[in-house]
Design goal:
Chain B: It comes from Halomonas gemina. Chain B: Its main location: membrane. Chain B: It is found in: Cell membrane. Chain B: Keywords: Membrane, Transmembrane, Transmembrane helix. The structure holds 2 protein chains of 2 kinds. By secondary structure, chain A is α/β, with parallel strands linked by helices. Chain A contains 11 helices and 12 strands. Chain A has 2 domains: 135 residues, Periplasmic binding protein-like II (D-Maltodextrin-Binding Protein, domain 2); 110 residues, D-Maltodextrin-Binding Protein, domain 2 (3-Layer(aba) Sandwich), CATH 3.40.190.10. In chain A, strand 5, helix 7 and strand 6 form a beta-alpha-beta unit. Chain B is an all-alpha fold. In chain B, helix 4 packs across helix 5. Classes of the chains: A alpha/beta, B mainly alpha. At the A-B interface, helix 1, helix 2, strand 2 and helix 8 of A face helix 2, helix 5 and helix 9 of B.
Chain lengths: 272, 234
């Protein structure tokens, strides 16, 4: 019994030391980013060359943009890569971020059942497409999770002069992939970033029905966290990551990333 | 359902392929959940036994509370641990958030009430049988705790397995406090959530089958040890 007890203690301590050993030695930063970048596989393509060059590992916590901001506000992430330009600027104004730069763009697309009951495929603009969905009252699956995509979707409804609500408008409160799973299950329309859609495998009857409107432009920005509220963060390492993303090498890595033969993110850092 | 054979094939391929990423994920799942169960047991077994032996005012409320906590939603436990370990939280300076250590802590909170509550019940029943004998021998209540725990050990193994089941199956807590970081805090359940999000349902289900197999293995090992011990005793 005594021996068993000692073994238990030993194993228990090993468990606790997991946390400690993960903290020691290795050079890494924690990056709060979005589910779209993670689910598409972008990070698997761009982090290894950065780590190879600098020896800095990047640990990605992929959440909705709203939650990413909250994680950074609390001092739990060294850097941010998100897609809500207004929110990003507010984050800087509030004093949590010291620098923000455009990194890349992709675009949002409207997904829906192959039969296109609301007839959005031939719409002139995304506002027209959304109005058609609202008029037809066909089910629409919204993220409803305060993510960058959700915020963009709400702005587009506003532009269309529609206040979405009622039984056809279903706020799911989940990530992009789960939202597409649900939309596939109930044959609903949904707005997705192109990256998640292209990488998504469980389409069932869903098809890409509307794309190409400039209003669907989706800008990703990299943010450095301000030193002031959180001096404990790895500001130096995070700055190296930020600079690398904007560098020729980082931009080329983003440019080269493809899923199923399709480029998903277009680098657009402005050299200054 | 065309996905079914696919998922089993995927599971088989995953196991036979011995993918290093998968092995890492499996190892971390086991490490985190087993550590959580063992740490929780170290606290909960004596705690449950003590609760079975002592009578004090408000004891009924403690027992009810402990039983209720068996139903603590993992996401709530995760959120509480997140707020504790976050840099802005009281234990932030240890930098434990988004590490396996944080995941162990969250799972300890989930498992502890289960082991404590069920231990309390088992030891209480056992104590009812032995009370007079132990009293006549003049064994103090403190000394009765190890005796009773040892006597109840076979039943308590099942209790610990229930705790392990809870820990290895939950996703809400480890997702929040671990962050599902590739190669660092990704475990079986969070990997399943990620693959489901990608719409890669056969792989997600395949991982689920691997997880189920893993839990079955742990249970089988415990069963084997228990049977061997029982035979020796019997």
């Amino acid at each position: 019994m005594k021996n068993a007890g000692l073994t238990l203690v030993a194993i228990g301590l090993t468990g606790l030391s997991l946390g400690v050993s993960a903290q020691e030695g290795d050079r890494y930063i924690t990056l709060a980013s979005t589910t779209s970048t993670e689910a598409s596989g972008l990070f698997d393509a761009i982090i290894p060359p950065f780590t190879a060059k600098t020896g800095i590992a990047v640990r990605v916590v992929a959440v909705g943009t709203g939650q990413a901001f909250e994680i950074a506000r609390r001092g739990d992430a060294d850097s941010l890569l998100v897609h809500d330009t207004d929110g990003e600027k507010r984050f800087i104004e509030e004093g949590y971020g010291s620098e923000r730069a455009d990194v890349m763009v992709n675009d949002f697309v409207l997904i829906g059942p192959g039969g296109d009951p609301a007839g959005i495929a031939n719409a002139e603009s995304v506002t027209e497409a959304l109005s058609l969905i609202a008029e037809a009252q066909t089910p629409f699956a919204s993220r409803g999770d305060d993510s960058g995509t959700h915020r963009a979707e709400q702005r587009l409804w506003e532009n269309a002069g529609v206040e979405p609500g009622g039984e056809w408008y279903r706020e799911l409160g989940s990530g992009m992939g789960p939202t597409l799973n649900t939309a596939a299950g109930m044959n609903a329309y949904a707005m997705s970033d192109r990256a998640t859609w292209v990488a998504f495998d469980n389409r069932q009857d869903l098809e890409l029905l509307f794309e190409g409107d400039e209003a669907l432009f989706n800008q990703y920005g990299s943010i450095l966290i301000a030193e002031e509220p959180h001096p404990h963060l790895k500001h130096d390492l995070a700055a190296q990551w930020h600079q690398w993303l904007l560098s020729e090498e980082g931009q080329a890595a983003i440019d080269d990333f493809e899923v199923k033969g399709q480029q998903l993110f277009f680098p657009n850092a402005h050299p200054d | 359902m065309p996905d079914e054979p696919n998922a089993f094939q995927t599971a088989l391929a995953l196991i036979l392929g011995r993918d290093p990423d998968l092995i890492g994920i499996v190892a971390l799942s086991l490490q985190v959940s087993l550590s959580a169960v063992l740490i929780a047991a170290l606290i909960a077994l004596p705690l449950g036994a003590a609760l079975a032996l002592w009578r004090f005012p408000g004891r009924g409320a403690v027992v009810v509370m402990l039983n209720a906590l068996m139903g603590l939603p993992p996401v709530v436990a995760g959120l509480a641990v997140y707020l504790l370990l976050s840099r802005a939280g009281p234990l932030g300076e240890f930098g434990l958030l988004f590490t396996p250590g944080a995941m162990v802590i969250a799972q300890v909170i989930l498992v502890l009430p289960i082991i404590a509550a069920l231990t309390r019940q088992q030891v209480e029943e056992l104590h009812d049988d032995y009370r007079e004998q132990l009293a006549s021998l003049g064994v103090s209540r403190l000394r009765r705790i190890p005796t009773l725990l040892w006597d109840a050990r076979f039943g308590l193994t099942t209790v610990m397995l229930a705790g392990f089941g809870r820990a290895s199956a939950e996703v809400g807590a480890v997702m929040i406090v671990g962050g599902n970081i590739d190669g660092v805090t990704r475990v079986m359940t969070t990997a399943i959530v990620l693959e489901t999000g990608k719409g890669n349902l056969p792989l997600a289900l395949g991982l689920g089958i691997v997880l189920l197999g893993l839990v079955a293995l742990v249970n089988a090992a415990a069963h084997l040890v228990g049977e061997t011990a029982r035979r020796r005793v019997g």
